[in-house]
Design goal:
homotetramer; alpha/beta; Aspartate Aminotransferase, domain 2; Aspartate Aminotransferase, domain 1; 2 domains; seven-stranded mixed sheet; four-stranded antiparallel sheet; 13 helices; 11 strands; pyridoxal phosphate (chains A, B, C, D); PyrdxlP-dep_Trfase_major (chains A, B, C, D); PyrdxlP-dep_Trfase_small (chains A, B, C, D); L-threonine aldolase (chains A, B, C, D)
Chain lengths: ~350, ~350, ~350, ~350
């Protein structure tokens, strides 16, 4: 009963098999492996972007930071939500990689999404002070959001339109890219460049890889700068084939889509069960993550029984009847039986 | 016949097996995996350093840069050789991670080792200008050197003594740590803290891992700062168990020592064969890497036959009799037959 | 009729005289001038801080950035208001000098002051995420605030108490230090270390110097690091005596206090006159700066007549009756006649 | 008898007069003062560069660092001599402002000048390692050199030609620009853009200003980036007129040229006198600075008599007959009588 994070589960067997297969004989290092050639071709095809520059790194923080540093000058500010991973969970990595850029919060505290209005308002603040204020920089959108909701294509497009109206580039933090894509039933292209996105952190780790994320620039003009930034950040793997192989295993057939489909289905099953118990959600669960309020007594029962997850606000101390919100994340490796066991416990059965 | 680098060969079967074994069920992320507990205990035992702070990262550039940034203020300078990886091959990663420190070259161009005299002279240069010049910072020693030689324990100790006489910390770039250790027939402790080393980049990747390096601080006071630097550099793996498992597989039994022993033996066999053909070496090959001068015609014959390696100075164009130096590196996965095939070709058989 | 800024007026005659006097013969450079010895002694005496480390730089942005960088690690976040100069008006200088620290806004948009509650809430946000979130760093308080109000000693102490309860250092941005001190009728010590402030940007430029600010650390342990940061920031003057002389001229007798007293009196006279005309203020004007709403027609009349000042929100376009807020700043070099002329114009006389 | 540095002497009376004249009434801040308009026009005229972007900062380290940061990416390396101010005397300011670029030494230890051959060799080192090594960046030439010699126009042109053949920009550190220009008897244009220089640190401080240096880019495309870098470095003066006024006073009539002419004449008189005493020079004194070997006994006599200057290598301890090199710098404010007094003392009269 592990719902702590989608980075706690095992890697997909196809990913491990690809690693094993790649571990044969010699391969040139530093991205010149044949597997990487296949990865680039595959991602360009999937994204319908034959010119795209494609790179692999090992963590989401790296993908975000390097992509943003490539798009953002040190005297600029990045627009994002208050709950964005780049703001709250990367120990100032974007500030470090950009050489001291700022992050401007374009959504209120605890709000999952930017809106065109909130984004525009944030951008406007930086308007009229010449050299004195931070200069306007990229917009970074998180999809799936940090609260488990998913921007619709119309919402994404509207945000990108605002950015474009100020001539600002758009970055998509897609740590849970495929979960969002499956939730929307759209194509990778529709969720990115067709909506106006310029660069994507295309996550693999949370959806069944060991540790690999792709960074995709739809305009290849960014390629060489990114390669230099990756190298001096220490993120260019010498035995690069083990990154490539993971991504190859992940993207072959429909492994990546099936994994996200299963994770989302797990979450839907869990959310349905909890809703049936009368539980309420902070935001509508739309992908593989939810924030659900349950009585303290229920949490105690679940955690005592070995369930693993994070309490989001509040602690176990105090009145048993009081509600405390938990974050529950479902990965591909969960199954209906475990979820039902959890729901039974929650129901007090 | 692949002698291009020890990062071109396959990973050790024990490493892959450990990855596979670790891929079972859920594990807490970000270094809280049970495998990491075992790694820390193992490394502390191997190094006879029960208090040491131990961390894993995925590349050598990262290990060096994060270790040095922890030891070096931005207004200081790091002392190293002209051929050091941190100077020539990391695209200014140390300068980036330290926030703009300098590297001072304490050995002449193309020289493999610092000497106490050359180190002392370099340190003295920075002596008398107060706030104006760069301040003296850590000494970084590469062992195995970039030219395939190995500092003796006496040499290491003498360099550390110079550093200590100026109260400067010492970092050891041990990308090929085990190859050096095997060459010297010494213990990890003897080659590090007993000689005066404060922090080590303990390489796994070049000796049979997929991509893992340990950073070891013998004084744990550096632990928290390192953890923060690792995180904001994007180097803290969420599914950290896959780093830990590699290192566990590598360190179990004597896998790591046997791999380096085999690599060194491969190199000795190769060097012996080349020497028998009359070839000369830029520096005495003492571990698993050599720089050997061969006639252009020999290079052409070898490369035409499919041998893979780097020419170090010069090109294939010109007089066939002229000597061109090649870098040849042997990893654990080579074997005597392949080397003999290479030697036969070199001999023109 | 110049109310645009207190950095638009001429320098005090005493400051210019001191420069002229210092321009005699040879002086050792880089802060070793005899004038600096006098400045240090004078500031230590004024602040009743015989151990304080005292430095001079030429701009307020520099004073703030270097002081904060000395107090703040790159992985930390600085707590300040949304309207703070360090956040809005320094083009990311604090982010640059700290090597990529973050600024956390501990007051709502357009709010002049932090409160103990808003500061505590902001600090608490960063509490429970270990290495993932930014670490808590210094608190930076602006006195006079950017909206022309002045923290009382009780307010300052309460904010410092919150900071101290989390073991965080406190920086005071005193670009208008003396205006605040005069407004409060307190001593420099009361407004700083006695309230709990650790480091001060003690402004001279806005109160009649040409370009000099002191940075004062009450704990001299920060001295050497500051000196190195100043040098590598390019802020150590070779002909340092011209910085020292300004500060000497400024601090001799009660020149600095009289200048601020006059500036505040000018502002009080102006505010009184405007209030008599029925004008309203965004915040109560408590030092030498005010934000006053006037009808567009009034602004047009004033600006047409040659008055110089900034409209804070809104423009001159639109209905003449509509109110637009202006920022009016009074420096020491204004006088009652000019202010009365301005008030007559505002009154439509 | 002060020969310690040309930053120890008083400012020119014309500079002080210009400051005093500028201190009249209100002036817009941050470079929008009318004096700056005049400075820009004057410098463009002097340099025959009607499109040049012109900025003022207060120290030479700032001028160099901001100019180089504008020309140099963080992953590049700057080519300079071992004795360059940017390498030895700025506490890593170029590394800081560039965000971690490297400096590559293109001349041997203690050598005053780069040659086309030494520059080309240094550039070639960085050639063939793709993303791994630092990338080639700007060439920075110091004129007057740190050893008091002056590059001829032919030498300057030859260095720029090498840089251009690799498509690298050229920066001129002209802390003693006018001393060099006077020594060569050439125009500012000949010593800069006509020779191939792209950006100049045009020093005022060492030649009689209080603290002002111009940064000049002959291609105005760098203007906006420079303005942002200047601001976030804390180097944009609010009361900017006091920088502008210094430069105006300095450039009016031929004040700047006369000051350098006098400083050089002082040095020539001093060098001639020393040579007549049999003294030898490390390098031929060609501007206003020399490195001269004198017996210890002579140094003792001079210093005892109150002469002020720096010993460059060695100390006063030991055999009186042994030679120790001193650095002697002459500024505009010296005169023949003082020099003759010094020479008499040196002669033992």
């Amino acid at each position: 009963m592990h719902f702590a994070s989608d980075n706690s589960g095992a890697a997909l067997p196809e990913v491990l098999a690809a690693i094993t297969e790649a571990n044969d004989g010699y391969a040139m290092g530093y991205g010149d492996d044949v597997e990487m050639t296949q990865v680039t071709a595959k991602i360009r095809k999937i994204f319908e972007a034959p010119e795209a520059a494609v790179y692999l790194v090992s963590t989401g923080t790296t993908a975000n930071s390097l992509a943003l540093a490539t798009l953002c000058d040190p005297w600029q500010t990045i627009f994002c939500t208050e709950v964005a991973h780049i703001h709250k969970d990367e120990c100032n990595a974007p500030e470090f990689y950009t050489g001291g850029a700022k992050l401007t919060l374009a959504a209120d505290k605890d709000v999952d999404k930017m809106t065109p209005a909130s984004l525009r308002a944030a951008i406007e603040v930086e308007e009229t002070r010449g050299v004195h204020g931070p200069q306007r920089g990229p917009v970074s959108i998180t999809q799936v959001t940090e609260y488990g909701t998913v921007y619709t294509l119309a919402e994404l497009t509207a945000l990108c339109d605002v950015a474009k109206s100020y001539d600002l580039p758009v970055h998509l933090d897609g740590a849970r890219f495929t979960n969002a894509m499956v939730a929307l039933g759209c194509t990778p292209a529709e969720m990115t460049w067709k909506a106006g996105v310029d660069a994507v952190s295309f996550g693999g780790t949370k959806n069944g890889c060991m540790g690999v994320e792709a960074v995709i620039f739809f305009d290849p003009k960014h390629a060489w700068e990114f390669e230099l930034r990756r190298k001096r950040g220490g993120h260019l793997f010498s035995k690069h084939r083990y990154l490539s192989a993971q991504m190859l295993g992940y993207l072959q057939d429909d492994v990546w889509i099936e994994a996200a489909t299963k994770a989302n289905a797990n979450a839907a099953h869990l959310a349905g069960g909890l809703r049936a118990l009368g539980a309420t959600f902070k935001y509508p669960p739309q992908a593989n993550m939810m924030f659900v309020a349950l009585p303290r007594a229920t949490h105690k029962r679940l955690l005592d029984a070995g369930a693993v997850y994070h309490l989001w606000d509040g602690t176990l101390e105090g009145d048993d009847a009081e509600m405390v919100t938990a974050r529950l994340v479902c990965d591909w490796s969960l199954n209906k039986e475990v979820i039902d066991q959890f729901l039974d416990l929650a129901a007090g059965k």
